[in-house]
Amino acid sequence: MKKYDERETLFSRISLEKGTKEYEEFYAKNPQYQKDDDSIRGVSFRDNLRKSDEFKKRFFPLTANNKLFIKNLHDLVENFEVKERQVIEHSFAKNLKEIGKYYGATDVGMMKLKDSSYYEYLGGLSDEIGLDTYGKKVKRTFNTAIVFTVKMDLEFMNRAPHFEELLTTEEAYLKVAQVGARIAVYIKSLGYRAMFNHSEYYLAPLVPLAVDAGLGEIGICNHLVTKEHGNNVRLGAVFTNLQVDYDQPIEYGLNDFCKICSLCMMNCPSKSITHKERMVNGKRFFKFDDASCFALWNNSGTDCGTCIQSCPFTQGVDLFKVNQMKDNPKMMKQIMEEYLEEFGRRNYTKKELSILNLEDKDD
Ligand code: SF4
Ligand code: SF4
């Protein structure tokens, strides 16, 4: 099976500098990306947020130092010594799931890592934590992934594509790192090796792992779509050599539901989402124009999130109905009709949240 190469992800591609050996080699092999990538290279989409300088000076610092926190968590886990080994039975998986939730995860599952779970090569997204990983071949060094979701704030997400969306996304990346770091330190305290994936350093694409860990299915938005919170979640994963009972993938009928829904595709302002299939590490995903998506981010000054806000499961569907919908077109139709009646094509809220409101300022 062909493994995914992190160098092909958008953020790795557009971090390449023109004229470097890496740039020349990558685009000689992948000329199809070059024109679009060059048009968005070197841009920080946040700078294009259409807000006053006063707003930016006041509110950008809310999340501007998140990478510093993540770097410190990364270093803490790396430097934390593995303690004396305890015998841990496989059934301890159920305790670990509760421990993950205690640390702040929304849901937790276990999956067995295979060689094909990992990236083939790393894409060097780790500048912020001071690692040079571009082009490094990834080897399987862990058996188990403890995969988890962290729910984003729906009130914030329903303001997508405005600044509130960026705030909840950035917050979730940091929470994922905090939860992952705490699980990893805990596992090391039990005497087993552990590393945590975070926004600055991934050893594997996490959506396929989350599917194997039974946390949800892949929607045409290419995100994990959970039954309870849709795609309004960020993913984390701790890799370890501790062996536990593993979960199984779930199928609740999302594949058929996406065919009658397509709301993420219809609402996507850059028309980046399609129904055409592609494979990533053995899992079925959907063809997606990442460059036009990123161009839209540059236009909005946030990472958009309209495809998250548009998903009926993000807004909440009665779990009883979700559990009845597999192979049941009548139930799917009912869920769609109820959603459209309540929210229309998307549940967009225009009113700014009070956290960002400067009107009552007394100077
Ligand atoms: S983030 Fe926005 S532009 Fe990108 S795919 Fe989702 S809806 Fe489309
Ligand atoms: S919005 Fe609809 S089509 Fe898109 S992932 Fe959610 S259920 Fe599937």
Question: What is the strand and helix layout of this fold?
Answer:
Elements: H1 10-14, H2 21-29, H3 34-40, H4 53-59, H5 61-64, H6 66-79, H7 93-102, E1 107-112, E2 144-151, H8 154-157, H9 163-189, E3 194-197, H10 206-212, E4 217-218, E5 224-225, E6 233-240, H11 254-261, H12 263-267, E7 273-280, E8 283-288, H13 290-300, H14 306-309, H15 312-315, H16 319-324, H17 329-343
Antiparallel strand pairs: 1-2, 2-6, 3-6, 4-5, 7-8
Verbal overview:
This protein has helices spanning 10-14, 21-29, 34-40, 53-59, 61-64, 66-79, 93-102, 154-157, 163-189, 206-212, 254-261, 263-267, 290-300, 306-309, 312-315, 319-324, 329-343, and strands spanning 107-112, 144-151, 194-197, 217-218, 224-225, 233-240, 273-280, 283-288. With 363 residues, the chain is α+β, with helices and mostly antiparallel strands. It has 2 domains: 52-240, no CATH class; 254-352, no CATH class. The strands form 3 sheets. A 4-stranded antiparallel β-sheet has the order 1-2-6-3, sandwiched between helices. A two-stranded antiparallel ribbon has the order 4-5. Strands 7-8 form a two-stranded antiparallel ribbon. A hairpin with a 5-residue loop joins strand 4 (217-218) and strand 5. Helix 6 packs parallel to helix 9 and helix 11 (254-261) packs across helix 17. The chain is globular, with a radius of gyration of 21 Å. One iron/sulfur cluster (SF4) is lined by residues 268-270, 272-273, 293, 296, 304-307.
